[in-house]
Amino acid sequence: MTMRGVLLFWLFGWLALQGAEVTTELSTDVVEAGHGAMLTLRIEGGDADQAPQIPEVKDLVVNPRGRSQTMQIVNGTVSRAMVYSYIVGAHVPGEYDIPSFPVRVGGKVFQTDRLHLKVRPSSSGEPGGMGDEEKVPGEESDFGHLTFQMVEKDRKHVYPGEIAPVRIQAYFPVGVRVSLGGQPRPEGGAFTLQNLSEQPRQEIKNLEGKDYRVLTWYAGLSATKAGTYPAGLSLDCTVAVPDRSAQKGLPGFEDPFFGRSPFDDLFTPMVQKDVTLKTPEPPELEVLELPKEGRPENFSGAIGTFEFESVQIPETMETGEPTRVRARIKGSGNFTLLKQPEPLPADEWKTYEGQEDFSPGDAASFEGTKEFSFNVVPMRPGAKDVRLGLTYFDPDLGAYQVLESDGQKVAITGTVILDEGEQKDGGNERPPLPDGPELAPVRETLGRVGRYEPWPVERVTTTVVGCGSLALALLGWGIWKQREVDPRRLAWLAVRAAEASALAAAEEAVRRGDVPGFFRAAREALQCRLAEFREVRPESLTLTDLEGRVEERCLELWRTGDRMEYSGEVASAGSLEEWREVLHEGLKRLSEASTRA
Amino acid sequence: MKGKFWRVVVGLGMLFGASVRADEGFERALVDYHSGRFEEAAEGFEKVLERDGPRVSVLQNLGSAYHQLGQEGRAILALERALLLAPRDPDLQANLKRIRDEAAVFTVEKSDRWSSWRSRLSWRKWSQLAVLGAVMMPMGVLLGWAWSRKPGRWIALPVGVLGGLVAVGSSWMLRGWDEVTTRAVVIGGPATMRISPFETAQEKGSLPAGREVRLGEQKGDWFWVTVDGTASQGWLAKDSIEPVVPRRE
């Protein structure tokens, strides 16, 4: 280094020290007992003459985490900072003050700010379950935590069959590799989860300085029996964690506070571990019995709050004629057990089961709209004010409710229709109503012995396939037999045979030089080919039938044959090879013309 | 020839005797029922079932007797079995609905058009219809050819085609039978579901009497069951449930 360089170095160092600054900062003000916060001591524009000493505070554990240097060059200006890191924490909950302490930089003493750290008890012993979701979840496990909240937070009890929407959240520390072994499930048999969202929503949340990967499901919690039961959930998952048994630790990097060096996680092999997350201390939930008093006869188990959104009833009807009615019901509750409404008064109508379509309004299928479309048959004529009605249990009111739609004026024509019971008993007395308060009466006649099972399904299938195959075979055989005796087909075959015979004779005539024989056979072959497609007798065809279908040379062949046949003229035998070509060309043309036709 | 004749006579006699015994047992159980001796009535109906096979009347009455005894699980089972024989019987449907309502056992029922069609006939009748349709197919073809020169051929061939449609449609209906054989009802509730097929295994929950479950794998005296419409599943002791379609041991 030259003298000039040394001077510049000292000049920059002196200038830097003039702007030196010391700051301290805690990553969080609140930690749980046994956990630490990061304390950073930052020295801008210089370095401490000796390692800073954080004063001792009773029960406060301070663990140095090393020193690092940062350098920035902005518009040619160099700024340098030294950062000393410490982990501070305590095993004893309480309020801790870290007093100001001196830091000597370049011979100059700087005082740090006072810091305050609150150490609260570990949440592993704290109740969870329906707690505030934004609190740091309890660290009862290093791997994660499970909570759930009722969407309706003021609900203190539920009824069997009711669906109470819940939000289930699993917290996993960022960095822990997790593989879910299933979906959240209720503990014990008092509750079931319905309409659990298949894929949880994932998000990263920072709670009290710690990052968590949070999985959120929505579902409906349904009680199966009355009583007071803990509403707990569990979730099976597999986590990848460092194998502590294989952990050796690097000399010089032991961490007296947390018991391991910062490099352990880098070098420790990972092992998979199956864990089951459970809601800690699940809250007791009271399940009330549905009241028997006042239970409507047609109560289907629907629990919630519902209202008619729209009703479509035709304005005119005829007794005995099925008429389509539509109704849309919106609300919240266990829509699965919400059955189609019935026209009122019920004894004036016959109702048939129709179709229903549910459109969920939320992830847990708790709110939504259900559309019913079904047939009703009016039994009594007259001008009616028709309403649709249904019953449900309102859990907020704790009472059964009868819901009726607005009335609709309907003109019903026709005559009074008696139902089967009225017809049998002359209309004096209705038969025992199957939906009445009592069971249908016992049967007094023995009846026939039946069988639960169908005939063995495999044998039935074999019989159907066998008989079907037999029917097809019989059908095919019959068609084949009929084809064999078909006169048109027989005539066609005869013409084909005659054509083949004529062609063979023509070939033989060419070979022997028999001119008359060739022309006779050639004309016969042309007649047969033409007759084959026109489905007439070959003898009935003349030169006129051939005209326009073949070339002139072929017509000449026919004429020559005619002349020889009728006048006895004999052409020279030397041209027979050429005539044979003409014959085959003519036959080909006839086939093509017939195909086109 | 003579021996065959006597065998037929003896067979008919036994049939008649069994019928008389069934009648007597049924009448006696009815008297017990009307006299309020429901336990004896249920026992009597069970005996008639065991001896002669299932009848709608006996199963319905058995369901009513168990209901009077407060054994809702067995009552629901008897009515479910009766509905296999007469799926559209209004008395059976009403009784089953009422008992389920009282036991607070709600089920998720299929109400699609397919199920509605299927429930028009019993399983046995669907299989009979399938075979009848199957036989109609070749018969129609044969008659069509036999009457090829008569006007009857225009009836015979459509009969064959109709038979084919009936056979295929009915066979299609039978596809759901395997599912029926996995249905079971909790008869003695609440039945405890466990995570493993052992008496000492951890409890997973309990199911009330009358709750319908779907049977899975069997391990010894335990069945893996799932509950339709819920996420509940686990092992149930064999003696706490009864398949809707009785299994031959």
From TrEMBL, chain B:
Sequence intervals crossing the membrane: 126-147, 154-174
Keyword Membrane: yes
Ranges of the TPR repeats in the UniProt entry: 56-89
Cross-referenced Pfam families: TPR_19
InterPro entries found in the cross-reference section: TPR-like_helical_dom_sf (IPR011990), TPR_rpt (IPR019734)
Keywords (A to Z) from UniProt: Membrane, TPR repeat, Transmembrane, Transmembrane helix
The protein's name: Tetratricopeptide repeat protein
Annotated source species: Haloferula luteola
